[in-house]
Amino acid sequence: VIRLLLTKDEVDPDTSGYFGTPLSAAAMDGHERAVRLLLARDDVNPDAQDEHGQTALLWTAYNAHEDVVRLLLGQNDDNPERRTAFGHTPLTAAMDARHRGIRWQLLTCNDINPDKPDIDGQTPLLQAAFFDGHDGVVRLLLTPQAVNPDKLVLFSRTSLWWAACHGYEGVARLLLEQDDVNPDKPDNDGTTPLWWASDHGREGVVRLLLVRDDVAPDKPNLLGRTHL
C-alpha cells in the first residue's frame, strides 16, 4: 500500500502529522519494510523532527526496534545526538527503555558523545548505574575513557553514590577501579557513598568501600550523623 501511495505526485512522503512524519510513524512501530521504502527516497528527511523535536531514531530507540535503529544510524544525514524539546537524545531514550541491544548500538556509534547529559543532568553512566545497575553497559562506557566517572550528576551526587545507594556491587566495583573516582565524595548534604550504603544496609558495597584507604569510615554528614 505504501509503495502504491508513493507513486502519486500529490502524496508528500515527508509531511508531518500527530506522530511526526510517515518515517517516524513507521519507525515508532518497527515497520522495517516501510522504513526502507521511505529512506530510499530523496524527498524524505530521516532526521525530521516533530513539534516536540522527536525524530524517527529517538522513537525507534525508545520502542526497542533494533533493525530499524541500525537502518537509521546508516543514514549520513541523520544526527544521532539530536535533542528533543525535553532534552532527550536517542541514547538517553534507549537508556530509559533499558534495551541492551540498542544501548550497545548507540554507544558504539562514533557520532555519539557517551558523556552528554540530558536536560536533568543525567548522563548515560548515571542512568546505567542508578536505574538498573547494568554492569555491561557501565563497562562499555568506561572502556574508551570518554566519560567522566566522577561527575556530579543528579542531585549533585556521583554515579558511585547512586550505585552504592541501590546496592549495585558490580557497578560499584567497576567505578572503584577508575583512578579518577573519589570514593568518598559527598553530596550537598555531606553524605558519602559509604554513609548511604550503610544507611540502606547495602552490605556488599559497604565491604568494597571499607577496604579502601581513601574512605573515612567515621565521616559525619552535615547533620553530624556518622555511618554507625
Automatic annotation (TrEMBL):
Pfam families: Ank, Ank_2. Keywords: ANK repeat, Repeat. InterPro entries: Ankyrin_rpt, Ankyrin_rpt-contain_sf. PANTHER family: ANKYRIN REPEAT AND PROTEIN KINASE DOMAIN-CONTAINING PROTEIN, ANKYRIN REPEAT-CONTAINING PROTEIN-RELATED. This is Ankyrin. The keyword Repeat applies. SUPFAM superfamilies: Ankyrin repeat. It comes from the Eukaryota. It comes from Choiromyces venosus 120613-1. The keyword Repeat applies.
